[in-house]
Every structure is written in C-alpha cells, then in structure tokens.
Amino acid sequence: MLLDFFPSRRLTIYLAKMFALRIVAVLAMLVLVLMMLDLLGKTGDILAIDGNGEAELWTYASLRTPQLIARFLPYSVLLATIITLASLNQNSEVIAMKAAGLSAHQILAPLLLMGMIVAVISFAFNERVVTRASATLKAWEAVEYAAVPDDPEARSNVYFNDGNDVLMAATAGGRADATVLTDVTFYERDDTGMITRQVSADRATFAAPGWRLENASAFNVATADTEELGETVVAPGVEIGQVELRRVDPDAETLAELSRSIDALESAGRRTSELEAKWWHKLSGPLSAVLMPLLGAVAGFGLARSGNLFLRAVIGMALGFAYFVVDNAALAMGSFGGYPPLLAAWGPFFLFLLVGETVLVRTEE
C-alpha cells in the first residue's frame, strides 16, 4: 500500500532526476554568484596582510563555500521545485499525469522523496564539513587573516575575571585540562579597580586550581620595578569550566559537541535556551528540504493557458520565503526566551507543513 503512493517506477525516476538536476544547477548558480560578491568585499582585507596572495583567497573560498551551500540549499530546493513543476505544467505533463489517474500527492511523491534524500545529505554535510569550516574560518577571521590557526577551536583575545583581578590571553586552545593559553597577562587590581601589578608570560596551563605561567615576569606599578618570577601560579578562581564556556559556538560544533556544551552550561547554572534551540534546529533545518516541494507545489497545478501560472509560481515562492522568515523569527524568540527551544525549532516546520498540505488539498484534491 505504501508503494501505491508513488507513480510508476519510470515516472518516479524521471521526476526525481529532473528535480535533482535543477537543485544542483540552482545551488551552483547561487553559490557562485554569492561567493564572487563575498570575495569582492573580503579580498582587500585578505591581501592587506603581508605574504597573503592567491592561495589565501582560495583558502577563504574553500572555507566560505560550505557555509553558503548549507545556508542556501533550502532556497535552492524551493526554486528547483517551482522551476520543475512550472515546466511540467507548461508542457501539459501535469495534465497528462492527472489524466492517467495520478493525484497531486502522487505527482509530488518523487519530489518529496528527493527532498528527504537532500535533507539527509544536508545534515551529514553540516555535521562533517560545515562545522569544521566555520570553526577554521572564524579563528582565521579573529586573527584578521594573518595565518590559518593550527587549532581551529582556539579562541582569540579571551579574558576571565578572578574577583577584582583579570586574566587575559591572546589565544586559548585545547580542551579540558589540556587547555593552553598563550601571550598571557594577569592584572592584579585593588578594591578601587586600579592595577597594582601586571604578570606576563608566553604560555599558561591549567594548574587545578589556578593557571601556571611559564617564564613569567611581574611589573609593579607603584615602584615601576620588573621582577623575573620563572614559574608561578595565578588566578586560582578561574576554573577550567569558564574557559570551556567561552568557546561555545553552535555553528562550529557538531550535534554531540553542542550537547556536551549545553550540559556544561547547565551544570554551571548558565542559561541554555538559545543553544538548545540551535541544537533542535540542527535537526529541523535540513528537513526544510522536504517541506519546500509541498510549499512550491501550487506552481505545478492549474491550467497553464489560464494565465495564472506566473501568479501560482509567485504564491509558491512567497510561501517558501515566508517559512524562512518565520523560522528565523522563531529562533530569535527562542533566544530571548519567548518560545521554548523545542517550539522555536520545530513550530515553523509543522505550521507550514499544515499550511502547504491545506493549500494542496483545497486546490487540487
């Protein structure tokens, strides 16, 4: 009975192949145009660094392209749906299929199947490629394209409070007890907030508690004297959890890594609703590829000679773009605590699933 939902094998392959080719073509066009526009704005910043050249431009393009693919893949599915169904309608192929006894849902079934395949590929691509590219690109941007960092997870220009005192570092790399701070400066301050002593070192590791500075030197503000300290421990109040929580970036973390970050935040008593919404959206976001054929289906039905084909295509496009607007708004509301994280991530999907199904049933079934 499940196979009755699909048309014949030959027709299913024909429609799915046509849809897939158009998705690839539209996505390639969008990514190529957007990448060129992006490079126009970034080329000057990249080449401003001594030693950067064409290789660095290709590096930027290789890191930016996965982000563009992940962001605009759902739009490509929407546009490919409208182009595919409009061309089928224009050539009277939809009329032929309906005359053969196929329902609107059966005509859409191959497109929905291909949308599911695209959703699975999108999820895997986001987890394996986009997260790594995002982490590396953000770390590179943090050093103003000076050099691609060896550790993409390293964060630049971090600081931590230990009461009145402040621990600052140029970079923080590694994980858990293996975290390493570089170009470290520890400022000791009095109750009025004035700096009394400055301790500097090239490197610091976690000493449990505190941070062990190597080859440290201290500058006393009152006497203007400099003292060589060698190895010393500072900032006993700065726990490893504070360093871990500073590096949470949902776009640069996989589903499992983001789960661990959320657990760490919760154990520290921090607010996690924004991250939880992003966690759920890592699942609901790729599924928008399944939703797009349903929202754009209005473009494929109705008589082409009636003059309403263009209007139907506009309506389908409007429904698709309305979903993205509502989806972004719901995530923003979830970040502010207006919506629960689960509702913020999944509410727009199920809302427009019902809207698309209602439009299709009322107009074609």
UniProtKB/TrEMBL annotation:
It is found in: Cell membrane. It comes from Aurantiacibacter sediminis. Pfam families: LptF_LptG (PF03739). The chain crosses the membrane at residues 12-37, 68-86, 107-125, 283-302, 309-326, 338-361. This is LPS export ABC transporter permease LptG. It is a multi-pass membrane protein. It comes from the Bacteria. Keywords: Cell membrane, Membrane, Transmembrane, Transmembrane helix.
